Structure to design on (264 residues):
């Protein structure tokens, strides 16, 4: 990259961060759940920035927003692509969902993207990370003999950030991952996507997971892809309806907005 290319790239990153609602973190949060989410997202984005392609960010927000509109959750949903070769996706309380460009590169269609986003949306609607972080903070507060005071304005950003770092490194319980898979396939189906795309994503992950360093965090924080496939098959994923609309237009959109940017 030449020096003259740097300024527009930084400018684009700032624009994307503003669009994602993250410029100037920590910022005002509408409620405690969002405050926890902002601290978590700041941690995650400390390790990898948002990808500068605004077109790709907009597209991922459209797909994610469509699926999220099928939930009852009144969240201010924000979706983002992280610029890293690591293969992973993250959900954070308050409606934040992030997918890495490394995982996006492995996907072949909008339906597969929908599967990844729907799993993360399910984590948010079931408050998996939020409840885990609250439990951790309560335990810490109890240890210090203090009352946890999570509802106050100006929640302790540093403590939240630390709690979220521990959680995102350790991962959730296996049962919550299975629950997110199950709710995710239901949500993507309601949104008009083919639920078998979730199995296709897991099969891809299974094909890569053995010793690939890009998969290290995902592998250590989730049940194996094979266990997740078995669970979904036992739960009856193959009985879910397959959309009648052809996937061609969706795949063309995906190729235009994602593959054209990431796969050169
Ligand atoms: Zn998960």
């Amino acid at each position: 990259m030449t020096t003259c290319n740097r300024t527009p790239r930084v400018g684009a990153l700032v624009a994307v961060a503003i669009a994602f609602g993250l410029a100037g973190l920590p910022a005002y949060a509408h409620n405690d759940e969002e405050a926890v989410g902002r601290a978590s997202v700041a941690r995650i984005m400390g390790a990898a920035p948002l990808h500068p392609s605004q077109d790709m960010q907009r597209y991922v927000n459209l797909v994610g927003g469509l699926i999220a509109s099928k939930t009852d959750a009144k969240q201010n949903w924000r979706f983002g692509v992280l610029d890293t070769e690591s293969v992973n996706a993250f959900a954070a309380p308050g409606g934040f969902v992030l997918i890495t460009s490394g995982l996006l590169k492995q996907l072949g269609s909008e339906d597969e993207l929908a599967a990844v986003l729907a799993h993360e949306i399910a984590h948010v609607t079931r408050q998996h990370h939020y409840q885990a972080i609250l439990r951790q903070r309560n335990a810490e507060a109890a240890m210090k003999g203090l009352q946890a005071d999570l509802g106050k304005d100006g929640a302790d950003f540093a403590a939240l950030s630390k709690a979220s770092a521990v959680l995102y490194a350790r991962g959730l319980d296996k049962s919550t991952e299975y629950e997110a898979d199950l709710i995710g396939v239901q949500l993507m189906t309601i949104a008009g996507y083919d639920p078998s795309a979730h199995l296709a994503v897991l099969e891809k992950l299974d094909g890569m997971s053995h010793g690939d360093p890009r998969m290290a965090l995902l592998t250590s924080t989730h049940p194996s892809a094979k266990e997740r496939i078995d669970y979904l098959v036992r739960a009856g994923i193959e009985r879910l309806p397959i959309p009648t609309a052809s996937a061609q237009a969706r795949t063309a959109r995906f190729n235009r907005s994602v593959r054209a940017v990431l796969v050169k």
